Structure formats: C-alpha cells, structure tokens
Amino acid sequence: MHEWALLIFTICVQTAIGGMLMLWLFQREISKAGKEDSFAILKIPLIIIAALSLVGLIASFAHLGTPGNALNTIRNIGTSWMSREILVTGAFIGSACITAGLSIVQKKVNPLLMIATVIIGFVDIFCMAMIYSNSLISGWNSINTFTSFYGTAFIIGAVLVASFTVPALRAKNMDDTAKKIVQLSFYFALFGIAIQLIGVALFPASLTDVNMIATSAAHSSLEAYQGTIALRWGIEILGLILLGYMALSAVKKTSIAMAFAALIVISFAEGLSRYVFYVLGS
Amino acid sequence: MAQMGFYINVAECVGCKTCTVACKDKNDLEVGRNFRRVYDFQEGSYPKPSIYHVSLSCNHCDEPGCMQGCPTGAMFKRPEDGVVLVDHNKCVGCRYCEWNCPYGAPQYSEELGKMTKCDTCIDLREKGEDPVCVSSCIMRAIEFGPIDELRAKYGTVNEMKGMPSASITKPNIVIHS
Amino acid sequence: MLDIMSKINEFKMSRRAFIGWTSAIAVTTAIPVSRGLVAKAENNIGIAETDGEGIWKTAACWHNCGSRCLNKVLIKDGVVIRQKTDDTHKDSPDFPQQRGCLRGRSQRHQVFNADRLKYPMRRKNWKPGGGKKELRGRDQWVRLSWDEALDIVATETKRIIGKYGNESIMVTGGDANIRNAMSAIGGFSACYGSSSWGAWRWIWENMGIGEGLIVNGINDRIDLRNSQLIVLWGANPAWSTMGSVTYNYLQAKKAGARFITIDPIYTDSAHVFDADWIPVRPGTDDALAFGIMYTLLDEDDPAANPLVKWDFLDKYTIGFDEAHMPEGADPKDNLKDYILGTYDNQPKTPEWASEICGVEPTKIRELAREIGGTERVALLTAWAPARIANGEGWVQAFSALGMMTGQMGGSGKMTGVSCWEYAGNMGPFLLTAGGKGLPSITNPIDNLINENEMWDAVLNGKFLQRYEKERNVNIQFIYHNYENHLQTRSNIAKGIKAHHKVEFVVTNAYALTTNAKYSDIVLPVATQWETAGAVKGGNREILINWSKIIEPLYESKTDQEIAEALLKKLGKDPKEVFPITAEQQYFNQLAGSMVMKENGVDYEPLCTITAQDIKEWGVEGTPQKGRITLKEFVDTGIYQVPRKAGDNFGFIAYKDFIDDPEANPVSSESGKFEIYCKAINELSKTAYSEIAPIPKYEVKVHGYEATFEDWESRKKGKYPYQMINPHYLRRSHSTLDNVPQLREAWPNPVYISRKDADEKGIKDGDTVLLSNEYAKSLRPAAVVETIMPGVIGLPHGAWVDIDEKTGIDRGGADNLFVPHIPKGLGSSGFNTARVNFEKWKGEPLEEDVKWEQRIIKF
Ligand SMILES: Nc1nc2c(c(=O)[nH]1)N[C@H]1C(S)=C(S)[C@@H](COP(=O)(O)OP(=O)(O)OC[C@H]3O[C@@H](n4cnc5c(=O)[nH]c(N)nc54)[C@H](O)[C@@H]3O)O[C@H]1N2
Ligand SMILES: Nc1nc2c(c(=O)[nH]1)N[C@H]1C(S)=C(S)[C@@H](COP(=O)(O)OP(=O)(O)OC[C@H]3O[C@@H](n4cnc5c(=O)[nH]c(N)nc54)[C@H](O)[C@@H]3O)O[C@H]1N2
Ligand code: SF4
Ligand code: SF4
Ligand code: SF4
Ligand code: SF4
Ligand code: SF4
Ligand SMILES: [Mo]
C-alpha cells in the first residue's frame, strides 16, 4: 500500500462533507431549542471541518509527484474525472473555509452557505467515486466505491460533529439537545453503515473481468486481508454500539468521553476500510 | 505519417527479457521502472503444460485510457504517428494513468515525480534506426512499423489469453500466438 | 501558495532522496560514480567523435556464458551512456546479427556497480599465519594500500613456501597471470575438473567421438535444416546458449523439422520449437537409452522394418555384438547381449527402463520407432545430462544409440553434444584469433587435485593423483583468481571448512564474490572493460575484438599488473613472465587473426596492417596483407563470415571417416567408433570407480535410487527429491548475479512441480526451506506444471549467503546440496543431488533485488 496520501485525502474530505451536512442539520435542531444562538456551539466543529478539508488539500498535494504543476490538473475537464474532482474538491474546500471564516467574522452560522457547501460536497464525493469506478482496477469499478465513500461521509461526519458539539451543549446544560443530536448522529451513522453494507453485498456481483495485465482479481488481492476486514467490522460495530448506547440509553447526560471514544473507534474502522480499498490498487 | 504499432510474435518469444533490459539501458531506467515488460504465462498441466510470454510496452492505443483520464492533458497522442507521449511540462505526477492503462505501460519515475513511458524510441527512429527493443530481440520476435502494414503482413489479432480485452483501448498491436 | 508548493516539493525531494538512499542504493550511487570515473574513457586509435553524439566502441562481454555476442557502448564526454548490440550488417537467418542477451546489455551495471571493490583489503582479524581463521566469511574489512597488500601476500607466500613447500599453495582458476607467476616462483598444486562437460570430458577420445568443444561431433547450422527430427536430449538453448543458437534452431523448425525434448523440465526451447516433451528423471538417461535400444533390437526387421543400421555398425564400430568384439575382449561382453540380457538375465526392456527413468514404456517404444524409423535425425545433447556422478555410461549409451541408428556422418544426421558456444553449429572455425605471444611457464609441481575432492584434500591432507596413486598434500594457501570455486564447485559447506583451515587465502576479484568473501586478502581487479583489449572467438563464423573502455576504476589493477607487482615483491623479474605489454598482446592477437578463404580450406590473415598502424599502436610487428584493415576490424569490433546453403563452409561431422574409414580413422585405439572401449575401462581402474568398456547401467551416487531408503520396497528416504541446477538467464554461473536489474528480470526461485507443492501445501511464492545432509537454504517457490514431479530445479550459480546465526543460506546456492564424491574418471556430478523441502515457517524471504548490495564501507 503506497497510497497513504490518498487515504488521508479521501477520508478527511469525505468526513468534512458529512460533517458539514450534520452541522447544517444540528444548527436546525439547536435553533429549534431556541434559547442559544448556535454559533457558539458550532464554532469548533466548523473550524475542525474547515481544517480537515485543508488537511485533505495538503494530503492531495503530497500525492502528486510534481505539485508545482497542480494548476494543470483542471485542464482536462472534458474527459477526466480526476480533473472534475479536483475542481469540485477545490470548490468544496473553498466554500467550507468561507463558511467557517465568514461565520467567525460574523459570529453566526450561515445555513444557506452550509447547505450549498454540502451540495458541492456531495457532488464532490460523486466525482471522487467516479475516478475510481472509472479506472480499470479490479474492485474499484464497482457500486461499492460509491457506497463506501458516501458511507464514510455519513458515519464519521456524524460522529465527529456529535462528539465536538456535545461538550458545548453540556456546558450550556442543553442535555436534551445533546441527546437529540447524538440520536441524530447515530441514525446517520447507521444509515452510512447500511449503504456500505449494500455496497459490500453488491460488490461481488458488480465485479467486471480483470482488465489489467499482471494484476489479480479483487477477491484474490483481498485474500490476505480477510483478517483486516473482519477487524474493521468488529471495531466499527463496537463504535456503533457505543454511539447507540449514548443515543438510546435512559441516562440523561451524554458522556463526553464516550462520544470521543466512539469518534476514535469509528474513524479507525473507516481508516482500515479505506486501507483495504487501496490495497486493491497496489 | 500513419499510426505506428508493434508486432509481437508470442510463438517465437523465449521470454528472455532482453527487450526489457535493452529498453532499460536505452532509457536509463532504474529497478522497478520498465517501459517494456515481459509477462509469463503457463497453461495446461503436467505432462502436457504450455508456456508463453507476452512482451508489451505501450500500444499507443486508438482510445488511450491513460489519456482520457489524465487531468492535466500531459498524456497526449501525437497526431502525426499516433504515438502516445507524456508532456513533462504538464504532468503533475498523479499516477492516474496507471489506473487507466490495461497494459501497465505508464511507469512512474520517483526521481522526476512524473510519469514516463515508451516513446517508441523516437530519437532513434528519427535517425532511421529501429526501436531498441526491436533490434535487441534475440528471436526477432518484435517488429515496429505502421500498424496497417503490420496488420496486412501478420493479421489483426490484438489480444490473447492473459491479455486484457482489446476493446478497452483499441491497442495498436498485432499478436501472433 | 507558491511557497507551500515549493515546501511540498522539497519534502518530496527529500523523501525521494530517502527512498533512493534506502532501497535503490545501486541507482543513486552508481551513476555519480560512473560519471566521475569514466571521465578518462579512451578513444580507439583513429576513432574520433564526429557527430557530437559520442562514439561507439566494442566492449567486452567476456563471461563463460555459453555464447559470444557483439556488445557496444556509447561514450559521450567520457561517460558510458548507453549500450547496443550488433548492427554491423543487415540481419537475416543465413547471416544473423550477433545479438547480445540481457546480461550483456547489463554489462555497464556490472562494471559500474555500486559493489565494485575499490581498494586492496584485509580481513580485520587476520594475522600472519591466519589469525582468527574461523572468522573468514564474516570478519570486517580493513583498507590497505597496494604496497601493504602485496607485502602481506609476498611475505606470507615466502613464509608458507619456506615452512611447507610450494606444494602447499593451491591456485584455482584458469587465468594464466597468477598461475604463471606462481609457476615462476616454484609452482603450486593445481586442481582440475570436468565442470562443463561432466562425463564427456575424458572418454571421448578413446571412443573416437567428439565431445562438443575440442572435437566437433555434430554438423553445422545450415545442415541442421536438413534434419527431419531433432531430439534435444537435455538441452535448453533458450536459457543456456543465448545469442543466435535458438534462432538458428528455429530455422530448422521452419524448414520442417519436428522437435522432441527429453528433459526433466518443459523448457522455453520446447515451447518455441513446439516440441513433444518427454519428462525424464535426472541422471537416468542411460536407462532410457537402453530401453530405446532394446526396442530397436526387438522390433527390427531388416526387410520390413529396418530400425537398426547393421551396415553402419559393421563398418564403423566395434563391440556391438559378439561378432565385432576386439581382440582380447570377452566376446560375451558385447552391447547387444547386454541389452538383451543374455548373460545377466536382465533384458533392458522399456518396462525395466521405465522403472528407473520414469518414461512410460509405450513412450519409450514410440521414441525408438521415431528415432530408428526417421531417415535424418539429429540426436543432440547438451552436457547437462552428463554433468552427473557415474555419468560415463550415459555418454557411451547415447553415442551407441546414434551408431545403432546410423545417425552420424550424413547430411541432417548427427549424434553428439550441442552445447555452449558451438551449440547447433559445428565445424572448423572460419576465423581464429592470434596468440598473445606470452611464453608458457610450466608448473614445476605436478599435483593435480580433482575438484570433487579438493576440499577433502585440504581438510584431510591427501588426494588421488589420478591414474597414479594417492598422494599427501598439505594445502595452507589458497589463491583464487578468475573463477569462483567456493561457489561453483560441489559442497560449499565443506569448502568453507577448508577455507577456515588453511593459513592464508587470497582472491583477485572485482566484487565480494564467494571466493573473496572467505579470503584474508582481496585484491581489486580491473574488469575487461579496463584492460587493453582482446580478440575472442565465439561460434565458428565470428571473431570479436574489444578494446579498452576506461582506465581501471578506483585503485583496481589488471590481473597482469597484480601478477607483475607480486613477482617484483617476491624478487623475480616480471619480464621473465610478462616480456611484452598488454597492448602488444592485444596487437599480436589481432595480427595473428586468420580467416578462411572462400574455398573453405585455406586461411588468410584477417587484418591488413601497415607500418603506419604499427607506429600508431606503438608496438612491434611486421606489416601484412589481410582481408580488411586493422582499423576496420577494431572499429567494427567483429568480423563475421556470411553463410548460405551450398557454400564451402558446410560441415558434416565424421564425414571423412564415413567416406573412407581406413584412410581417416577416428581417434580411438582401433580407429573405429568404440562401443566397446577397453581404454576407458583401463583408465578407470586407476581413477575413482570402474567404468565398464561398454555402456552399462550403473546406479549413481545420490541419483534417483538414492532418494529411496529402500529401493526394493520403494520406501522413500530422508531426501526424496532429485535436484538439478539449470543454468539460469540472470547470470553466467555466479557472474552478474549481483546486478540489480538482472535480479529484477529473473527472480531466482526454486522450481517445484504443482503435484509436489500441493502435497506439501506450498503455494506459488511461498518461501521454502530446502535441505539435505550438507546444508539448508531458503528460496521462494515457483510452483509450475513444467517440471517433472519428484524433481526440484534450483537455478545454478546464486551467491551463497549464510545467516551466521542459523546456518541457513538465503541465496539459493546450488552447490550447497551437491555432494563431494568423485566417481568414474572424476567428472563433475552437479545434476545428481537429492534434497527435501518444506514450507518455511519463519519470516518469508524478501525478493533478492531488494537486498542490500555487498558494498564495503571503510
Ligand atoms: N544463462 C546461462 N547460460 C549458460 C551458462 C550460465 O551460467 N547461464 N553457462 C554456460 C556454460 S559454461 C555451460 S557448460 C553451458 C551448460 O549448458 P547445458 O549443459 O545445456 O546445461 P543446463 O542449461 O544446466 O541444462 C540443459 C538442460 O538439461 C536439463 N537436464 C539437467 N539434468 C538432466 C538430466 O539428467 N537428463 C536430462 N535429459 N536433462 C537434464 C535441464 O533441465 C536443462 O533444460 O551453459 C552455458 N550457458
Ligand atoms: N551445482 C552446479 N555447479 C556448477 C554447474 C552446475 O550446472 N551446477 N556448472 C559448472 C560449469 S558448466 C562451470 S563452467 C563452472 C563455472 O565456474 P566458475 O568459472 O567458477 O564460474 P563463474 O561464476 O563464471 O566465475 C568466474 C569468476 O571470475 C571472476 N572474473 C571475471 N573476470 C575476471 C577477470 O578478468 N579477472 C579476475 N581475476 N576475475 C574475473 C568473476 O567475478 C567470477 O567470480 O561452474 C560449474 N558449477
Ligand atoms: S527479447 Fe524477444 S525473445 Fe526475449 S523476451 Fe523479449 S520478445 Fe521475447
Ligand atoms: S497502452 Fe496504456 S499507456 Fe499506452 S496508449 Fe494504451 S492506454 Fe495509454
Ligand atoms: S501522472 Fe501525469 S500523465 Fe499520468 S495522469 Fe497524471 S498528469 Fe497525466
Ligand atoms: S520502443 Fe523504445 S522505449 Fe518503447 S519499449 Fe521499445 S525500447 Fe523501450
Ligand atoms: S550471451 Fe554471453 S556474450 Fe552474449 S551478450 Fe549474453 S552474456 Fe554477453
Ligand atoms: Mo561450463
């Protein structure tokens, strides 16, 4: 596996996109609760999302052999999904940073900008997935690539934003809202997992012939990674259980520690999943 | 000038990899980077096995996947003879072409941070010489020339067992197996 | 933004540098080294760079690789920037270019390899008398000046001669320089062996046949196209005679010949010739031949089905049947009765043969009918099937088969060795190189130690002086030059013990070869790119000459310079041994080169040499008239005689003898082909084990039968697999094995049949542990359908690399497993070895291209 940069890039940007979606939903939830202006609560997550998108940007540069030529990468919008993706990713990162920056300057969040960023982000994930599914690598040219990428956005995005808003809500004694938010995030994570599972289920059926010389079919490249895959699901389920416990238990106060534990565990699981994804291409 | 291509006589190739190494020498390629590669295949079972080797570089395809996916337009097809080349002024080293070539032709240079590949030994051809892989093959199993002429001489087979389907990129190669 | 980009760029550069530093040492260090040091590249006399693109010069490719090809290098601004091969004339099957192989094309990576030895060096714990001798092979190295190094060698030489006598010096290797120097100071114990030939080496002359190098036994390549059936009996030109040979064979196929290969391996030759493959167990070809001969006798009907050529046997051979026995021989001891089992009650039927060789009886009968029933057959064998212990019987049986079927001495008919530089193309040389003009110095000591017992001789102090009697010897000083005996001769483990025992070991080497690694003093030697030049023959149609490409790299010296310097230190005048310069030697070879005239009989000088040439070269000589100018030969680097069907250069082996046996007797005592050869039997009585005068099946030490604990009940033993060592395309023996790009192209696995691998649960690429009573070694498995079950193919020549902690080799050195047991006349027995293998449970082996090179840092 030599695609570390791409692993970091895709996870960060997808997390940022999913996170932005959650933030948009949360700000609606928080403003429903009424008493607080949501900026104070959403500031930190917003900055983290912008920061993640920038980390993604740096990682994407690290992937390039000649970053100095980066500006050339949007010259082939006509036929290259890579070009398109770079353009849209740029737009997403730009609007994520503007959204965060503006809200800091204006000391309030801008739901319209947020939802616009989310939409760009969702297009971006589509472009990202098209790069891989359009390639000849056995296993990438599958519906699984889409479900895996969108799934990651939902799963980590949800947990990330939840774990970073809970402390602020707790501090402001908005325990009910915190609970709501954790519930929301749990359902989104479940949704993310569900679509990933659909992708996994459809994976074997969607595999085409091996289209490259001297590579092996996806199932045989994955043979050595069955343990990793099992580990990933184990950890992922553990994270979900943590999250589910927080969301559904009768305890009123949401545990901050548990929220971060869930974030760490789930991020790790998604990292492993992405690692295995890139094994296919190496 | 016409579209150029290679003829590979798989039936007479002994799999010695002299072509690979001669090309390495010509292009100063380090270990790991091979503009021409020889793929070894085995079929059947004891005591009636068969073996064969397919020597491939870049097939300078009619529908080059490498080029379609390339975000910078660095990968381009020379109009005059259909040779697919990398413009190093544009290439960003994203390696996306590696994922889009069925034949493993793009060979990334860590040192340059850019993609490199078979250029049909353009410099030698300008001097009227054959590409090095052609003039090195001890079995005379590689030929290079206008693809129409090669097809007229050797037929139009452009894939064989073990090779990716020619429908993907329409390679300019003639295989004799 | 720009700033960030340049930062990222910088980071990537340093990462790249790091990668370069860790994994691609060869690349990053070799280039600057070559850039710096090739700056002194020399122009040929008279060659000038004209087009600003550099000059092409013919560069040496001098290895014992079984071929000779034209290799050229492009020198620009004093740097070797590229190589190429023969483009001196248009290529055609009749007049083919002499194209080099992947090894030749990697030559500059050998010469400029990062592991070139730079300075004379000494083992750290060496002391006069040896010091800690057991550290040989794992000690550190200390850099020496030439003066210090030569002082040590001279002082130790004198001390050892004084104490033990000149007999205690063993010089290995064929290079004349050190041998002559040592001869001049009182001599040394020499060793000898039949490495390449196996059992062909010492019996051909007495039998009246050719062995394929000294005497031709097969026809020329154009005549090969007249054969209808070509049997490659243990020969794989696609691997072991690169260059033109496989291409020449292909022309015979195109002319209509059918091919059969008899080999434990389905080879790439079999593939391109579309041959029928008959898998045979190693070292059992004699049994197969007997099964064929039995069938021929059994089914022969002079009228309806003439399989045996009785006329041929009658006219040209002795010993086939009772009626043709030589005087004094027991009439019962004839081949026909042996085959029929008349007296030993064991008819050598296909069923009998099949038990041993593994070929189905029906297949054996088919083979017999094909060989006996086809008019023009080429029965061609390489030396490999004879590179076995007790192999003489095979040579006799194979030859007898050719005689029985009359496949000798006619167009398209041949029976003999087709191997090495003369494979598939024999006949008198159309070109010959001149001599160097150096005096020959005789070695005053006549000890000749057989290579199969050389390490025992060192360890036990005695050896058999062949054809005489046992002698005592006390070897205390081994001087290795221009070969790699510790690597390429049998039983490396015993060899290492021997190296740990003696008082002094010196090697001239240009990389840390096995010999060098186990030495006390290593003297860095120049490669042939760094010496004056030479003229070399290859196949009979060519003569190649190469000249100096660069001055010796680093502090290396040529073999001659080392020998001269040593002689001086030993108080001898080097002029006695080397009265002329290296340049003069090169010139003499050029001036003495001869080419055959169109008439196919007479020779004329190849080069026209003028007084002006002699002056320019600064040598002594006399002007002469030849076919081409000296300058043309040196600039082109090759002269090749064009061939075509019907020219005067064709050759049919033994034709003179066949045409008139009385007037042109063969080399045997009787002047006929000796199926019964008394002389061989006589010789063997004072050698290692008795050889019957006629071909007879003999159980081979460490052969197939020895893989059983109990042959009668067919209970397998501890080492149930037979091992062979096919010569491998990544290297020439051990030479070039250190070149990373060759390691990349040919990864050196151990070949295991799918059936055997399945039984052991081994998958392709798994690391396996090979073992026998002598050693253990690791290799990745290549699980194939193309090797006979029961046979393991470990490619010949990988550098031994023993882990001092576990004692396990990871290089895959073949000779770890080959026993050290002389048999017959003392011929090499490499292809009879036995092993076991199992899945390796430790860390899997990394591909050896990724291993660190043996670069010595001081
Ligand atoms: N690439 C390469 N080529 C070389 C060399 C090298 O080191 N590397 N060395 C050169 C030298 S010096 C020499 S002497 C020649 C030797 O050349 P050869 O004598 O031809 O030796 P190999 O190539 O080892 O074996 C040839 C074939 O014999 C088969 N064989 C082995 N044992 C037996 C047996 O018992 N019976 C039968 N029927 N077949 C058997 C092998 O499977 C192989 O296919 O090669 C020369 N060519
Ligand atoms: N098990 C097994 N063993 C075998 C064989 C087999 O089939 N199986 N094959 C046998 C055969 S056929 C042969 S011919 C032998 C070959 O046996 P060797 O002759 O020992 O083989 P090489 O590895 O070619 O060794 C040549 C050495 O000389 C060095 N050298 C090259 N040029 C020069 C020079 O100019 N000066 C000096 N001083 N050194 C130089 C090289 O670096 C190399 O170390 O191996 C035999 N050994
Ligand atoms: S050089 Fe020729 S014979 Fe050798 S591998 Fe290449 S194509 Fe095949
Ligand atoms: S072989 Fe690969 S690199 Fe070459 S043109 Fe076709 S797709 Fe592009
Ligand atoms: S590595 Fe270069 S040539 Fe290949 S796709 Fe990227 S920019 Fe294009
Ligand atoms: S044409 Fe030139 S660059 Fe291309 S594979 Fe052949 S030798 Fe290499
Ligand atoms: S076959 Fe031998 S002489 Fe010819 S290029 Fe290869 S190594 Fe050199
Ligand atoms: Mo040899």
Secondary-structure class of chain B: alpha+beta
Number of separate helices of chain A: 9
Order of helices and strands of chain A: HHHHHHHHH
Which pair has the most extensive contact? Answer: B-C, 40 and 52 residues
Q: Specify the structural class of chain A.
A: mainly alpha
Largest sheet of chain A: none
In the CATH hierarchy, what is the architecture of chain A at level 2? Up-down Bundle
Helical proportion of chain A?
A: over 70%
The description of the largest β-sheet of chain B is: 3 strands, mixed
Low-confidence stretches of chain B: none
CATH superfamily of chain A, called what?
Answer: Formate dehydrogenase/DMSO reductase domain
- Biggest sheet strand line-up of chain B: 8-1-9
- Rg over CA atoms of chain A: 19 Å
Helical run tally of chain B: 6
- CATH domain topology of chain A: Formate dehydrogenase/DMSO reductase fold
**What gap, in angstroms, lies between the N and C termini of chain B?**
28 Å
By oligomeric state, this entry counts as heterotrimer
How would you describe the overall organization of this protein?
- The complex is a heterotrimer of chains A (282), B (177) and C (858).
- By secondary structure, chain A is an all-alpha fold.
- Chain A has helices at residues 4-33, 39-63, 81-106, 111-133, 143-171, 175-206, 218-221, 226-248, 256-279.
- In chain A, helix 5 packs antiparallel against helix 9 (256-279), helix 6 (175-206) packs antiparallel against helix 8 and helix 8 (226-248) runs antiparallel to helix 9.
- The mean pLDDT of chain A is 92.
- The model of chain B has no long low-confidence stretch (mean pLDDT 97).
- Chain C is α/β, with parallel strands linked by helices.
- Chain C has 29 helices and 36 strands.
- In chain C, strands 5-4-20-19-18-6-7-15 form an 8-stranded mixed sheet. A 6-stranded mixed sheet of chain C has the order 32-34-33-36-31-35. In chain C, strands 10-9-8-12-13 form a 5-stranded parallel sheet, with helices on one face.
- The longest helix of chain C is centred in the first third of the chain and has 21 residues, at 2-22.
- The complex binds ligand MGD (2 copies), iron/sulfur cluster (SF4) (5 copies) and molybdenum atom (MO).
- One iron/sulfur cluster binds at residues 58-61, 64-66, 84, 101, 103, 105-106, 117, 169, 171 of chain B.
